[in-house]
Alkaline phosphatase
Amino acid sequence: MLSPLTRPAVSHNYAHSTEPGKPKPSPYDPPSDLTPGVPNTRTHVLLEKSDVTFHREITWSTSDPEKPKIVSNRLVVETGDDADQIHVRSWPGDKLQFTINGRSYVLDAQTPEGPAQGLMIKTNGGDDRVIVDDDVKHVLEVEGGDGNDFIQAGGGMSVLLGRGGNDALILGSNSGYAEGDDGDDLIIGGSGNTMMYGNRGDDRLYAGFGSARKSNFLDGGDDDDELYAGSGNNLLNGGNGNDQLTGHDRTSFYTGEGKDRLLNNKSKDSIYTRVDNRWALAQGSGFIEETPGKSSE
């Protein structure tokens, strides 16, 4: 159930009409019109406002037609093209609180059956700000859309997609994946394993710090990027453009095309680059000569 905290919930925003004396249908009851042999996704609208829509998205498997089962269940929050402010935090009683543009909503976050409930936030256009607190452990996906967005993940596994604009993407304390896409983006890894792609634009990628077992993959993509390794094992791929790659702990450097510079390489590091790029020869890092385009295959 969803209810704004600022005033009593209006039931017609999310409740389905039923015949007198019959219980309200549950989204967790198998639909009668499932197509055999393929995943079936059903969307259940919880609340629609001028600036935000909440719905629950449930995917069913029909591998056993007699016993359909839920294989995916997530809450989807979508805002419009204005500059939106979204804050998500844990709430007592297995709930989540969403504060969106100054208005607060509370949703049930516990599912009666099937996999744990995931969370997707889609902000579309505008310069949006999305912050998910670390006490939110749900699997998270955030898609920023156009505009210069700031997105910070919480304590669950996360996927952050900046899309258009100059975005700042901050991964959380669990494993995370981030893509900047268009624009000059800033991507910062959290304490978990990280995989990040700058794609187009002059991007800055920071692997982040955590345990010595942390694993980081950074790919600058096109244009002139800065890549900074973090704790644990790092693989830095500059991609196209004139890039700067800075090592830390254990690092493998792949420079790609362009005039690149490598910093803070160490004796146990591996460098895959062209001889005309710059790095500290005296450190004794392993060197493998690369030809243009080979490292990005």
Observations:
- Residues 105 and 263 are 48 Å apart (CA to CA).
- Residues 3-18 have pLDDT under 50 and may be disordered.
